[in-house]
Amino acid sequence: QIAARAETLTKTYGSGDTVVHALRGVTIDFKAGEFTAIMGPSGSGKSTLMHCLAGLDTASSGRVRIGSVDLEGLSDKDMTKLRRDRIGFVFQAFNLVPTLTAEENITLPQGIAGRDVDREWFDTVIGRLGIGDRLAHRPSELSGGQQQRVACARALVGKPDIIFGDEPTGNLDSRSSGEVLDILRAATDEFGQTVVIVTHDPRAAAYADRVVFLADGQLVRELRQPTADDVF
Ligand code: ADP
Ligand code: ADP
User: Fold this and answer.
1) Residue 197 · residue 38 · CB < 8 Å
2) Residue 144's pLDDT band (boundaries 50, 70, 90)?
3) Whose CA is nearest to atom 19 of ligand 2?
4) Contact assessment for residue 198 and residue 123, using Cβ atoms and an 8 Å cutoff
5) Buried (b) or exposed (e) across 176-187, using 16+ Cβ within 10 A?
6) How many angstroms is it from 117 CA to the middle of ligand 2?
7) pTM metric for this prediction
8) Cα Rg of the chain, angstroms
9) Is 114 buried (19+), middle (13-18) or exposed (0-12) by CB count in 10 A?
10) Interval between CA 20 and ligand 1 midpoint (Å)
């Protein structure tokens, strides 16, 4: 079963002399329940690919499917609903609401979607991410690493079909990185969620089922069951 698919995706920014080909025909499947890490040099198109997959950006040509839904035909309203119901996104810049506490941030998407929070899973996520004693704090009272883990918890708590993460361990020390990668692994193993992250962290390879490498807007390599040594 395919959770997401990009088909001959291209993305061009600008035009004329300043044109940038961020994606040059990327075709890739993400199987349901798999954990994929996307790696590659800065500027290779990783963020663009993930933003197109998550419906946060539109490709110049090609197709994106989430499950059986082709994003091209969707109205803004249906796109919003699909993102809300089926996709969790961990942004590089966290995107937490500054006036809300950590707990309110984490449960906000559920409230917006009119869904009850699964308290048992909430407690599991919070416990494993080690932020149980930070729930009443606002983002400004949290370290970067704690904000990062709150952002991860927010993406995980609704058990979306797919979780996308833009360098979800980018601001974390090695212990916190391990906790984030552990919980993403648990999301796939225990709930069959699909995880796709962009990362520069070689340790992520040990948690992922597969690492794909982008260079200059193209897929250049794919490793299955990688180890950290494979990507150093
Ligand atoms: P990565 O995530 O691998 O660092 P990006 O997807 O962010 O790569 O960027 C791919 C290329 O597209 C880079 O050359 C980058 O400068 C360019 N790019 C990304 N976003 C924009 C944008 N909004 N406007 C113009 N160029 C962009
Ligand atoms: P990353 O660490 O993911 O590669 P970037 O610094 O490439 O991050 O991009 C961060 C944000 O800036 C993205 O939303 C991307 O679309 C935008 N961006 C990247 N390159 C450019 C650019 N040359 N011009 C305008 N926006 C850009």
Assistant:
1) yes
2) confident
3) 43
4) no
5) bbebbbebbbeb
6) 34
7) 0.87
8) 17
9) exposed
10) 8
Pairing of strands 61-66, 35-39: unpaired
Q: Tokens 């995880």: give the residue.
A: 195
The mean pLDDT value for 130-158 works out to 93
Report how far ligand 1's centroid is from the alpha carbon of 48 (Å). Answer: 6
| Ligand 2 contacts CB of residue 44 (under 6 A) | no
Q: Ligand 1 site: residues with CB under 6 angstroms? A: 13-14, 20, 22, 40, 42-48
Q: Is the pLDDT of residue 228 over 90?
A: no
Q: Is the CB of 18 under 6 A from ligand 2?
A: no
Distance 85 CA to ligand 2 centre (A): 27
pLDDT tens for each residue of 85-107? 899 998 877 889 999 999 999 99
Q: Please compute the mean of the pLDDT values over residues 202-229 and round it to a whole number.
A: 92
